[in-house]
Amino acid sequence: MESLSRHTDYGNVPFDESIALANPLEQFAQWLKQAEAEEVFEPNAMVASTIDPDGAVSSRTVLLKGLDATGFEFVTNYTSRKGKALLANPSISLLFPWYGLKRQVIVYGEAQPTVSSVSDLYWQRRPKGAQLASAASDQSAPIASRDLLDEQLAALEAQYPGDALVPRPEHWGGFRVLPHAIEFWQGRSMRFHDRIRYDLVDNQWQISRLQP
Description:
This protein is of the alpha+beta class. Helices cover 26% and strands 33% of the residues. It has a domain at 24-126 and 170-210: Electron Transport, Fmn-binding Protein, Chain A (Pnp Oxidase, Chain A), CATH 2.30.110.10. The protein has helices at residues 24-37, 81-88, 116-125, 128-136, 146-159; strands at 45-51, 57-63, 66-67, 72-77, 91-98, 103-113, 172-186, 194-201, 204-210.
């Protein structure tokens, strides 16, 4: 088997307890802003991992749509694989892979469906084409061909022509992730990386260092 190992030097930019902010969501917002400034491709892209009702773990990339001092939000089809998984078991991890910055952030928490008004707001912000695509797709369900999928989209385009508003499907909406732990990873030389972890204990964030 051909070896795919590459010995890349990760640089010597430190991240330690002396510069870490007290609140990890504020620290995350700072790193996200830096990723945007460095023009990282899709800086809000995150790998969401969930647990299926049968116990299997599944992962996929989704986009972060909302962030505040208490949690992260994204949108999906509630009948999709991840939607069904989270409605049965709210445990979730989110991984932000900012390779260009030699950084990653992992969020561990529980996901809750957002209230209808929040889901409505996210739906209204979507371009009409994205609304039609979301409404036309029974996400994660098998389909015989791309042609049939295109036909479903064309039917909705005919149903809502021009400036006609596309209503939000009941099965589409947001999830809010409430974190109980967040780990910040900064690449360092010799693979001797910095790992700073925040844990929520009695409603207070505690900071610790993990060995690389």
